[in-house]
Amino acid sequence: MLWQMAVRNLWRNWRRTLLTMSALVVSVALLILSLGVFSGMFADMLASATQQYHGHLVISRQGYQDQRQLHDTILYDPHVVEQLHATRDVLGISPRLRGFGLLSRDEQTQPAELLGIEPGRERQVTSLHEKIVAGKFPAEMLGSWIVLGRGLADKLEVNPGDELVFVTQAADGSIGNDLLRVLGVFDSGDFNRDNSLALVSLAWLQQLLVLPERLHEISLSISAPMEAKPVAKQLAMQLPESLEVVDWGRLLPEMQEAIASYDVSRLILVLILYAAAGLGVLNTFFMSVLERVREFGVLLAIGMKPSSIRNLVLLESLVMGGLSLLVGSGLGVLMTLMLSGDGIDLSRWMTAVTYAGGTIPPRLRAELVTDNLLVPSVTLLLVSLVSGYLPARRASRLRPVAALRGD
Amino acid sequence: MLRPATQCSVVLLFLALVFPCSSPALDLPALIREVETRYQGVSSHALVIMEIETAHWKRSLELESWSEGRDRFLARILAPAKEKGVATLKIANEVWNYLPKVDRVMKIPPSMMGGAWMGSHLTNDDLVKAHRIDEDYTFALLEEDDAGWLIEARPRPEAPVVWGKLVYRINRTPFVPVQISYFDEEMIEVRQIHFDRVEQIDGRWIPRRMLVNPLEKEERTVLLYQNIEFDLPLPPQLFSVRSLKRN
Amino acid sequence: MMSLLRLAWSNLWRNRRRTWITLAALAFSIMLVQTSHNLSTGVYSQMIESGVRAGSGHLTVYRGNYLETRDEKLGFNPQEFSEKLKSIEAVETVLPRIYLAGLAQSSRESRGIVLSGIDPLLEQSINPILKRLPASSGLPDMASRQALVGDRLLKELQLKEGSKFVVTLQNRQGEMVSELLRVHGVVHSGIRHLDRSLVMIGLHRAATLAGMPDEVHELALILKNGLGNETPAAEIAALLPGDRGLRLYFWDEAMTNLANAIKLDYASQQFMFLIILMIVTIGVVNTLLMAVMERTREFGTILALGARASVLHRMLFLEALILGALGLLLGTFFGSLATWYLVEKGIDLQNWIEGELEFGGVVFEPVMRAVWEPLWMLKIGIYVLSLCILASLYPAYRAGRIVPAESMRK
Predict the structure, then answer these.
(1) Contacts (Cβ under 8 Å, ≥6 apart) of A63
(2) Count of A-B CB contacts under 8 Å
(3) Residue A28 burial class via C-beta count within 10 angstroms: exposed 0-12, middle 13-18, buried 19 and up
(4) Which of A16, B62, C160, C403 is most buried, taking the most CB atoms under 10 A from its CB?
């Protein structure tokens, strides 16, 4: 009975209904979009912290990450890798070996950090393969290829195809040296890294450093990077005690701070947005009910109970709210999807931004996160219910005569 | 490769430059110079076995070395086979390495001078700074007895050395160094070089064995002189980047 | 016209509550946008100030492509013109600097470093990294062996204050040269790679060591009032000798990271402003439309009495204008109030975050302060006013199309 009445009311006044709904639709859609953009920037920051080098989690011997001692190695056990793969949340696994030494070509000699990787696996953890500016990223592990940072390539004056010598002290104390052929040059945007890092084949580096079957670390990417810490804890329990699992927050404490401060300022912005959107919705719903005080007076006069009136308004708000949320979040998702992918490119105005040890690509990009859908929808629905209900309650308490007068 | 630097003048002992053998007097700088130049001649040619022990590995290298004056030094690895032909050339303040496997000569950049020389507890910088002992230090006699002397070397106020002091123990007869201790500024002993197996070679007394001990680690480098000859004519082009490549 | 204005005014206040709510939304958004703009402008200029003071100045002189290559050979002798630069009214000071890659050795360890030669007295009055030091630990003079060392480097070399270390580098002539230095003070910039590699000594000693006496790599100009429209860049550039490949750079060219970090942040903020303004506009359109629909009968009557639709249009336009103007006044009032608070008190981020705040490679003060940007505040007010007027178009159009007979039947 009440239900029918609500629908009839809405239908009869379809203009007002549409108008009221439009406020909610637009607010929800825009809110979802802007939350999506914030999430996108946040993801870019997080990715810059983790995908350029470290990964989300790193398994290594206790103390290796602080000292980077050549001898603190772990065994490359395919069984462990498989076990890790089977672990929930783990997306990618990259076994790595690291060597410090001199890269040289003709007159130029530069100290460098060589990271031995399996290209196929490394792709699952870091995004250096997307940062190639000359030549290419290796397709397979075998061979004596090297992919080096742009700064390093410039200092050594090498291009893809050129030969380089690497020399270092191997794990048995011998002088390890070999020729490498430049396959590609990457530009991560991080000046320090581009000046010192080079990627080589894991097998090649194992042989050069006389560390067969050994690794320094296993780098992991996981599905929920913000949950890295608990996942690290959980993994550590499965692994032998001599190993430690370090999350990205510990590897990049500055980045963690930067992200925390970004989170704070994002929180402020989100609150402001909610306030703006909520106020808009409140405004509209409040008014649309206020307008009808006279109508409620009539209903009261013909004997309708005040509580029924309140329920009627609530029901109407609910119907309008529900419908607008459907349309609005649909619209919001659509806009978010349009801005996901590569987003709005800002590279005409700026280059990549180095930020607390990470590098953020210059773009406005949105990312779809379920929280960004649910929270605004539920919040704004509540706002619309409250802002419809309050004036309705007030109206239902009026004496019919006063209401009819249209206070 | 980036082994902590331990810089000293020890390579001087390993290099070689002649200094006329004078009678032991209390001219301390002369005394020290004399100790430091024990292994030296106008030129020298030596066969040395270098044994290196670290926490993780132990290895032995056979080296052939030549020197001329204070500024020129060349060393080439004879064994093990894997590293045969690897060579180091020092001219004045600069150091080059030759790598036969890739047939390349590499100049050591300034930022890598602290790196270990051929994996030992000597650094590239040790090679370069080897000849500065009497310029950089002033000396004081701590003890003198029938056995020999104990001499303290204090760096001059502005000398570019990292040590707080060095202490030399020198034997009177035969006139050879026994031990050199390296102290930091808080006078904590950081490194020791010990000499023994004294034998007469080519008319002079030479400790055949030299031990380099960084005291804060369980590690050491031992140099064993198999053979050493002095004052022989060396071809002038021996100490050149070009000759590094030739064997 | 006056009567129409009065009519519009009284129309607005016929439904007082609705008008107040709309006004609140308008004013609130204006306040938010104005305040957050003022705040971020303040924070940006704080960042730029501490950035240029710790970094390469508001304006910087380099030779050739030193900025990109950091080629140590690209030094220059600033003697003949640096005095002239200093005498320019807007210039607070001119900081000569030299940067040399080298090796630092202690009795335990060795590390690759960047040795920078500075003018300690000048630098200490400007550079926030040095300002944090206790007064006594500033560098004594240009030729001193006393060095300021990054805290991480100090730890890695196992050094203490007062202890000595040796720096080795390759000089201009290609020789390896070494110099004894002493740790005079410990500096902490908060930027990891700096704290791990920074050694600062007097300019003269560094330049002499590098075999390039009297030369510098960088001349950082600090301006009294920061960068603005009156920056005498042309005047300064004209003082540089033309034949030595010297060029004047603005801070955003010399420190692209900081400039870009700010641009990116501002881009996302502008995006947010856009969203807020859109939401506000929808709110105003709603209010006006509803007001029109509510008054369908009334408008119908007016039209039936022979008034032209254009009168209705104008009346609604005036209603929107009044609404917008009131919103603007209220919003600006509250925006000014909030800005005033943020200028006077600021927001202390230390309550939220531990440690330093780094942004675009520069550590900045943890208290965020706003600045007054009255022109911008006015601009946003005019935007909102225009939006209100735009928002009245459709409702006015609807009102004009009311068919009198139909509306009166209701």
Answers:
(1) A69, A72, A244
(2) 62
(3) buried
(4) A16
Nearest-neighbour CA in chain B from C215: distance (Å): 21
**For position C178, what pLDDT does the model report?**
86
Smallest Cβ–Cβ distance between B163 and the set C103, C107, C112 belongs to C107
List, for residues A384-395, the tens digit of each pLDDT value: 888 778 777 777
Predicted confidence (pLDDT) at residue A293 exceeds the cutoff of 90: no
Q: Are strands C362-364 and C357-359 parallel, antiparallel or unpaired?
A: antiparallel
Average pLDDT of chain A to the nearest whole number: 83
User: B98: how many CB neighbours lie within 10 A of its CB?
Assistant: 22
The residue type found at A331 is L
pLDDT of residue C383: 86
Q: Which of B83, B102, B108 sits opposite A165 (nearest CB)?
A: B102
Which of C33, C285, C294, C358 to mutate to test binding with chain A, by most A CBs within 10 Å of its CB? Answer: C358
Chain C touched by A357 (CB under 8 Å): yes
pTM above 0.80, yes or no: no
Please write the tens of the pLDDT for every residue from A157-202.
Answer: 999 999 999 988 888 888 888 999 999 999 887 777 888 899 999 9
- What is the total residue count of chain C? 410
Lookup: tokens for B178: 């026994």
Chain C stretch 339-368, residues whose beta carbon is closer than 8 A to a beta carbon of chain A:
349, 352-361
